Amino acid sequence: GENVEQHPSTLSVQEGDSAVIKCTYSDSASNYFPWYKQELGKRPQLIIDIRSNVGEKKDQRIAVTLNKTAKHFSLHITETQPEDSAVYFCAASRDTGFQKLVFGTGTRLLVSP
Amino acid sequence: DAGVTQSPTHLIKTRGQQVTLRCSPKSGHDTVSWYQQALGQGPQFIFQYYEEEERQRGNFPDRFSGHQFPNYSSELNVNALLLGDSALYLCASSTPGTENQETQYFGPGTRLLVL
Fold first, then answer.
1. Which of A4, A101, A104 is closest, CB to CB, to B104?
2. What is the pLDDT of residue A52?
3. Chain B interface mutation, best of A39, A45, A98, highest count of B Cβ atoms under 10 Å
4. In whole angstroms, what separates CA A76 from the centre of its chain?
5. In chain A, what are the helix, strand and coil shares in percent, each to the nearest 5?
6. Which residues of A touch B94 (CB under 8 A)?
7. pLDDT tens track for A51-92
8. N or C: which end of chain B has fewer CB within 10 A?
């Protein structure tokens, strides 16, 4: 069945460092890959997404890369700040017109001042 | 512009009871998806409603059922509650598209505790 693996499960960095979270998906028909940030007790919020027709997308300090051949995609956060501390989820979906998101297990990012 | 809203925010039930959770989609959205998020896990897809019909379903038993109303709001019903049904239930709204699907926007969730 469809599966998304996410690593690492926890990540601790110093403020100003970069953080990288990696995901691997199993369904080769997947072509939409969003990343959500979930702070404690709050709803998941989309921070960036990428579709299979591009290999990289950037939005200020956040970037996502996609390798469809290897079925890998990664989230890169540069110049981390304490407010980046949260749980980050990757997800994958087929482009069928109705998204069914398959989520990874999450990465708890802790940015220390 | 109203975002996705859910009610209630918290709920405590006992095993064997039934529960109904409610969701109102973001303004302009007509598709509602429901997810179950167990503690420390990623959200798991339950099902999705569009035009008042269930369009897709995840790997959840028939105890989980839903409904969508003409105003696009939705309900999630769970019968014969088990302890393992304790989780955060998230509703997400979107609009189906072809090449450029709109993103799913999540509500704040309903935290269900089954005792």
1. A101
2. 83
3. A98
4. 8
5. 5, 60, 40
6. 99
7. 888 889 999 999 999 999 999 999 999 999 999 999 999 999
8. N
